[in-house]
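Structure ticket #2291
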Amino acid sequence: MSERIFVRGMVLLSQTAGETDKRVTLFTIEQGKVNAFARGARRVTSSLSAATEPFSFGTFSLVAGKSSYYLTDAQIDNYFEELRTDLDAACYGMFFLELADYYTRENNEDKMLLKLLYQSLRALSASSIDKRLVRIIFELKALMVEGEYPGLDMEPQELDAATVYSVHFIETAPIEKLYTFTVSDTVLEELDRFCVRLRRRFIDRPLKSLQMLETVEA
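Resolution: structure written out below.
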């Protein structure tokens, strides 16, 4: 029997596989992105049913098969249930998961991005923080973490001093401190336009969750 390994991370994607199984994509601390099959997870009575839903964060037990991993057990620390009951928050959260899936690679550790994803989902769950600002911070910081952020030099127009300060704060602040500030509506609009320009420059394929998110933000 193959050796069991334990990984810690979050479910990014869950798909049906056959009549009763699921295929999940995990974003893990130890191995980056990992795909695994969860046998019987579509059954309501399965212990893996809830654990294989998107946003589930915890420790997952995997066994290597001939061509893929199999998920055998999971201990979930946070299901982010607030994101499952709030449609707007869920749309933002699914966008975050898809963007994380875009950046991550198999067998490539990316602890900072996983930490950013976790803290950003926690911020989405906090009703006191503007969800649009959370999205902007997540997108900008993800570019910075991945080493693709080009700086403000690419900006074709002069930005408000408060906008420049906000971008600098996002760039330099530790992830735990990111969601500790608010901005005016004017600065929020400038940050959003800057963020969209960066997205169009660096994301080279359509993001399925973006269309729904744009409807929410309209």
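Closing remark: The mean pLDDT is 94.
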